[in-house]
Amino acid sequence: MTQVIVVIGAGSIGQAIVRRVSAGKQVLLADIHRESAEVAAKTLSDAGFTVATTAVDVSSRASVHALVETATRLGEVFGVIHAAGVSPSQASPETILKVDLYGTALVLEEFGNVIARGGAGIVIASQSGHRLPPLTAEQNAILATTPTEELLSLPMLQPDMIGDSLHAYQISKRGNSLRVMAEAVRWGKRGARVNTISPGIIITPLANDELKGPRGPGYRRMIEVSAAGRAGTPDEVGTVGALLMGPEGAFITGSDFLMDGGVTAAYWFGDLAAK
Asked: How many domains does the chain fold into?
């Protein structure tokens, strides 16, 4: 049966990963903007990949379920790369929680029902999840295991508890890594694996929005004081993605890979630490 790799989010990180894991497989590229998926699909098709496109709104269960049905009509779902999301400069706290937190939980739940034995998934989280102060064990468990449709009703996620869009983004990304850890147990019963990658500042259109936005000076400061001294590239994330989805990563599941050039280290213990 044809092996299908589903990519949610037509941006450069999703494309960089899919290039490394999809030779000889069917790619299904989904984005909230169908035209964005089609532009990316042409680039991949011109490079020799077999690509179909569709639209998806990850904040809608009906839309995500329809994506699963489209994928399973093409073959067995062997890989899922979830790279869709919105940043603090792009959306309100409510939208960030609905897309980045609830949407990720939806994708993990729906695709966890059909992922093939030997398959693997990746969720793109963020270094921001590592900059949130530690949560309690109870809060961790709540974010990891609360039924998807009850997530947005949690008291800890109500407007009086979420200060601004950055806070919503940080807790969503922390929630992503916790959710993946819990889902890895369920995916494992199907013989499949799932992990998160938490990139730092990777030069993408989303990052460029942040660099030009109100948090731009802070972003540039992070780059300057990091051990790497530069931003990252989508190809570098693609390399880690290929490890996690390939046979060399067969012993890795339920894990989160922070790759930020040392920004988080500087935030907690270096020049970005609060004095």
From this structure: 1
